[in-house]
Predict the structure.
Amino acid sequence: MPAFWRDHPWGLRAAALVLSALLAATLQWVFPGAMVAVEQVSGDLTWRLGAAATPERRIVIVDIDESSLETVGPWPWPRETIARLSDRLRAADVAVQVFDIVLDTPRAGDALLGRAWAEHSVVAGQIFSIDARTTPKVAAVGGALASAGCPSFAPTSKGYIGNSRELLSDGLSVGHLTPMVESDGVVRKIPAVICHEGRAYPSLALAALWRAAQTGGPAPLTSDWVWSTHRFGGLFALSPAGWLSSASLPGMAVPVDDQGNLRVPYRLERKVFLSVPASQVLNGSVDPALLRGTIALVGATAFGIGDVTSTPLSSVAAGVEVHAQTLVGMLDHRLPYTPSGATGLQILAMLLIGVVLLAVVTRRRGAPVKRLPIAGAALALACYGGAATGLWVADLWLPWFTPAVFALLAATSLATAEHALTRAQRERLSAHLGAYLPAPVAQRLMATDPSGSMQVNLQHVSVMVADVRNFSAFAAHRPAQETAALLHAFYCIAVDVVEQHGGVVENVVGDSVLAVWNAYAECAAHPSQALAAAKELSRATRALLSNRARPQDDHLVQPLALGIGIETGTAIVGSFGPARRRAHVALGEPVSVASRLQQMTQDLSMPILIGPQLAEKLPAGSTEGLGEYLLEGMSRQYALFAPSDWAALVPTEQLWAGATASRPEGGSRWTDELRTPGSNSAFAPHPQRDA
């Protein structure tokens, strides 16, 4: 990860949200049909899940079904029969008769039927073609609104299928039966009005509603119909794109979208509508109480003559059901619509989603990478739930899929960003831990939880302790910056040499380094590797230590030199202490022996001393015995060894300095006596080790 994003995590999170928003907007722009299709299907599901089963008795469907055809005769029925059906409905005190049929062919009896329709508050049907490629003109159209002109949002028709002219009287209301069929064949909308030759023609349900409001008998549609459009945001974000209203229908405003369509409210199950066969109405076998005061929808469901369509509630439904659902919505003032500020509402929803996801990120408990996908899915479902609630509670058809897509994309992007940040932080922390702890230990600590228990292992290891001799006296005569720089260079060389020979620097204290082999990774030849590392470290630090000039003001300060002790054996390697403050150390006899051997390198004027167990594992001829000595703090004597080529590791000036440093009378301490086996009188106790 670039350092900029690692150091500015909130910038990375903001960029992830912006990128998700742009991607969601791009998907909506590139695939608008797919977005709308998902919302339409989800809306259908909402209608089905919430459809009420309460019986609806304000509307009765008079069904021209198969049984009616068997009783009365094949369709089309004589005009006299249809007139008699209208008379029967009038006699039953039906409030409004709505004929969901079109009688376009002139036939005998048209005048009789026309008079009956004019007297009985009938609303007849007609069909418009809103496809510019289809322009039939069959029979005659009627029922235009008296207002001049058409609303700008209404669809325009070039063709129609109307009724026989003799059926159209001045007092007859007519409504169109033209649905808006979606690409999947489902009827979800109906044009509120359709413009034809400069005049506006209402839908069947709208004409039926207006007719039901008339109490003075048949009359033409008046000029009190008005339409308005609204395309403003702000306080009017929840307003529809347009609406129709009439003084004859106080409190009623029919909301429409920017294409002049009203959305059909499928709030009722199909079975809630009372349906009676037309034949029973004709023969008078229907209880008049069932029809009194109702709006009677006369439609055909018989095979071959009925208009079959698909609705959100059923893939096979009669067209009369669509008009019935629309009428109920108008009567209840419950017509769903898409707000004009839908885009602004989507943006607001996306902002809220972003805030919630950022809150999930900043929550202290738990891993955001694990919580974010769950939160994203939950927010996507919440978008649908909010849209469903808005539909059922406030009649708002809210576009929800784009915010839902944004929620999923934003959660994924933020989870990816958080994973990258966490990984970068872990890598940075691991690098820092690896600088203070052995790399395997640091990696284990990164993968486990803090623990206050003792976590140790017994390992057969080789140990090397390397110390800069005479450093304390040297540092007393040098600036702190210079001594610090020297130690830094020494540590760097030591770590490089140890790691190149397969070891791990376990600890650094003052001017000494503790390294182990075979503690964290299997190393069969660790004794030889430890000796090779000791020799290489001695050679690598020679120039660093010898180039340091002695202070001129103190001739007693000895030159710097490196003393190294190495030993093999079983040691305890692990972590100790409470969870809040742990210490990782290597303990055991090989560590103690190697430390004491390093101290004795100055007494014996040896650059490297080897313990007895390590010497046993080295090839013959690679070591030189120095005798047995009682090491400080140890209860027994140890045989000490030096590399057979030790002389090549010591510069001439250091040999001389070692020979004269502690000579009481100028004689050398480095005598055959001191190297005689069993001679140990001069080495207990030892001078205090340099810090």
Summary: The first strand starts at residue 56 and ends at 64. The radius of gyration is 49 Å.
